[in-house]
Design goal:
The chain is an all-alpha fold. It contains 5 helices and no strands.
Amino acid sequence: MSNTNWKGRRDWRDWAGRALLALAAIGAAVAFVSALGDVTGATDPTRVLVTWRFLGLGFFAGVFALLAIRPRGHAGLFELAILNKAALAVLGLAYGPGVTGAPSLVIFDGGLAVVLVAAYVLTRGWTAWRTGREGRPRDRVPAA
C-alpha cells in the first residue's frame, strides 16, 4: 500500500514526511553556509576537522533534499542517515556533558534522528527496498 489515495494523489502523511525532510535539508544548508566562516578562520590544528564538518553539513543537506524529493526512491539512504544521526547522539551521551560539543550532539543530532524516523514512518521509506521488474519502486505513482 502506497502513500497515495484512490485518485493517485499523495496523502497527508507523505506531505508531512516530505516537509520534515525539507526542513532538515534547509537546516543543514543553513548550517553549511554558516560553517564557511569557521573554515576560513580555522587555525592549523583544527582546519581539517572544521573542513570535514563543513563538507559533512553540505553532504547531509543534499541527502535530506534527495529524500524530500523521492523518499521511496533511494534504498538504504534513509537508514544510513538515521543510523549516523542516532550514533552521534549516543556518542554525545557517552562522552558526557564535560566534553566540548557533546551536549550539541545529543540535542541536534538526536533531535534530527527523531525527525528522520518520523519522516521514515510517514513516507514509508522502507518501501524503497521493494522494486518492480523495471527496477523502480512499486509504490511510485505511474507517469501519465
